[in-house]
Amino acid sequence: MRILVLSDLHANATALETALAAAKGRWEGVVCLGDVVGYGPDPNEVTSKIRELGAQTIRGNHDKAAAELMATDDFNPVAKAAVDWTRSQLSAENVKWLAELPHGPLETGGLVLVHGALQDEDEYVFTPAQALEGLLDSAAGVTFFGHTHHQGGFSYSNAKNNLEVLSLRPRASESYAALRIETGTRYLLNPGSIGQPRDADPRAGFAIADLEHEVVEFWRVPYDIAAVQSRMRTARLPEALVQRLSLGR
Ligand code: ZN
């Protein structure tokens, strides 16, 4: 089964629709690594779309904050302003759905899903040292994580005792780059962020995992960023959040 892996959608309906159009007909199951809402202008649209798709979803820190399961004391003022706005917009039904999301790690379809790190859903995994525990301790050979909004990941080969950083972003002229999954190697992979990429590529990121054929595709698709920015300005979301979408930072 080919599994569409979405993460960090951040209430960006245009990016989500564009990604789903690009992935159409290429998957049979869909999972979501959290941060459905927060930052973007379309919290209800995106939450409803993920519910409608029936995506197996775990919660992210922004979902917890929006559902008031987490205080926002640790959030910077810009992120906090976005949380407050998101809370004011979400329907009661969508808040309830967000509040009931399970936390990772979650095993599904031969994969393990986490939002941040394997042991701590709110922790960032940027470096090989931070990736090591997840690579070694995960219940599956292929684990997907989000939270950093950086597409790529890490692999660990027991036989070679070798931890590798995987740079998997497709080039500007390409839609996807494929990773061959090797037997005896463990993977901690980030599909990239749909709604707010931070790896210097503003295109929406996602992955399609086909474990039977031992391949994971890492996708990037351009979307109408200006349309999202215009809705954000109308909603009076912080200007810093508006501008970072064009930069992919
Ligand atoms: Zn996020």
Q: How would you summarize what this structure contains?
A:
By secondary structure, this protein is an alpha/beta fold. The protein has helices at residues 13-23, 43-53, 61-66, 77-89, 92-99, 128-137, 225-234, 239-247; strands spanning 2-6, 29-32, 56-57, 106-108, 111-113, 142-144, 152-157, 162-166, 176-180, 185-190, 204-210, 215-221.
Question: What report would you give on this structure?
Answer:
The protein is of the alpha/beta class and 249 residues long. The protein has two domains: 9-13 and 34-103 and 223-249, no CATH class; 104-148 and 152-190, no CATH class. The protein has eight helices and twelve strands. It has helices at 13-23, 43-53, 61-66, 77-89, 92-99, 128-137, 225-234, 239-247; strands at residues 2-6, 29-32, 56-57, 106-108, 111-113, 142-144, 152-157, 162-166, 176-180, 185-190, 204-210, 215-221. The chain has a six-stranded mixed β-sheet with strand order 3-2-1-11-12-9. Helix 2 (43-53) links the parallel strand 2 (29-32) and strand 3. It starts with a strand and ends with a helix. 48% of the residues are buried. The model has no long low-confidence stretch (mean pLDDT 96). Residues 8, 35, 60, 62, 147, 149 line the site of zinc ion.
